[in-house]
Amino acid sequence: MSFFKPNAPQYKFNKKTLKYEKVEYTFWYRFKGVLRFIFTSALLGFGFFLFFIFILPSPAAKKLQKENEDISSQYEILSRKLDQALEVMDIIQERDNNFYRVMLEADSIPYLLRTGNYKATARYDKWDDYKTASLVKTTTEKMDKLNRMLYTQSNSFDELVVLAKQNEDKLLHIPAIQPILNKDLKRTASGYGRRIDPIYKTIRFHKGMDFSAPTGTEIFATADGVIEKISWDKTGYGNCIVINHGYGYSTLYAHCHKFQKGLRRGLKVKRGDVIGFVGSTGKSTGPHLHYEVRYKGKHQNPQNYYFMDLSPEEYDNMVRISSNSSKTFD
Ligand SMILES: [Zn+2]
Questions:
Q1: Rounded to the nearest whole angstrom, what is the distance from the C-alpha of residue 68 to the centroid of ligand 1?
Q2: Ligand 1 centroid vs 290 CA: distance in angstroms?
Q3: Structural domain boundaries in the chain
Q4: Is pTM, for the whole model, over 0.70?
Q5: Position 144 pLDDT exceeds 70
Q6: 8 A C-beta contact, residue 180 and residue 287
Q7: So what CATH class is 188-324?
Q8: Is-contact 232 238, C-beta < 8 A?
Q9: 135 within 8 A of 79, measured Cβ to Cβ
Q10: Which end of the chain has less neighbouring CB within 10 Å, N or C?
C-alpha cells in the first residue's frame, strides 16, 4: 500500500463483475496516508534525536567532559597543596600558643577557635549532587580553615606586638639567640627529645641541644642575666655555666673547655657576652656545646629560643637538621 496517490491510475479486479475497475481514491483516504507519513517521520526523527543526545556525545559535551576531568585533577593538586600549607600553619600556631604567648603571658588560643569547625556546617551541602562532591567540599573546607587560621594568627601577632612593647625589659632576659656563631646552621648537631645515648647506646631524653664546634669556639650568653653557677659538674656536664635570667628563665652551657677570664658567680652578663669556650669536658664524645633552656625549672626545647637569630626559613632548616640527627654528643 502506498501513502501517496500514485501517478499512474491503479486498477482492482472486481470478482462480481469479473472486470478490472479503476480505483478512485477518496480525499479522506489520501489525507490518512499523509498523516501516517508525517507521524512515522516524526517518530523516526525523534528516535534519532534521542540517539544523538543521549548516546552519542556532541563535540561540545565532549569538550565539557574533558574540562571537568582537568578541573578535578587541578582540584586534587590544590587540595594537596592546602594540606602542606595547613601543616606549616599548625607549626606556627604551636609556636604561637606554646612559646610566644607563654613568653608574653597571654592566654593560649584554643585550637578549635583557631580552625573553626566548618565540617559541622551545611555550607557545602549545595555541591552534594556533583560527581566530585567530596573533592570540592573537602578542598573548600581546607581553604576556609586556612583562612580562619591566618586571620586568628594575624590577630594574635598584633596583640603580641603590643605586649612585647610593654615588656621590653623582660624580652632582654629571655634567651633569644644561638649560644655560638651558627648562621649557616652547620654546627647544629642534635636536638631536644628522645635520642640515642652516645656512650650507653640506649634511648634517653636529651634535655638540650648540641652544637658541634672546634675546641676554643666562643660561647655567648643568650640573654641578659646573672651567673648562677660556674664550676665543674660531677653529673657529666664537665665545665658548666648556668645563667639565671630572671622572669623564670635560666640557661645552661656544658662541656666547656675554659671559662671566660674574670667570670664568677653573681656577675651580671648581657646577651652576646662571651662567657666560655667550647670543649669536650665531662661525659662527651667530642668537642661540642650542650645548651639547655629552662623555664620555671622545666626543660624547654631550645629551638624555640632563637627568634632574634633565625629567619622562619632558617628556623625550619634548623628544626629539620636537629630532629634528623638521632645521635647526641651528650
Ligand atoms: Zn647534649
A1: 56
A2: 4
A3: 11-55, 70-166, 188-324
A4: no
A5: yes
A6: no
A7: mainly beta
A8: yes
A9: yes
A10: N
